[in-house]
Amino acid sequence: MASLTRTLPASWYCSSPLYQLERRAVFLKGWYLLGPVTKFQVVGEKVGYEVAQVPLAARRMSEEPRDIKVFNETTGFELRSYITETGLVFSTISDEAPPFDEFFPDLKPLIGRVDFTKLPYRRSVKYEGRFNWKTMVDGYQECLHCQYTHPSFSVYYPPTFYTVYNHKNFSQHVADPQKPEDGLFLYFFPNCTLNVYGGGMSSFRVCPTEKPGITRMEFDYYHQESGEKFEEYFKFVRQVAMEDYELCEKAQENLEKGVYSEGILNPEKETGVAYYQQRVLELVCAQHETERESESRDIYRSSNRSDSVASQLVDPAAS
Ligand SMILES: [Fe+2]
Question: Across the chain, where does the E strand assignment appear?
Answer without folding.
Answer: 31-36, 46-51, 54-60, 68-72, 78-79, 81-83, 88-92, 121-129, 163-167, 170-174, 184-188, 192-197, 200-208, 215-222
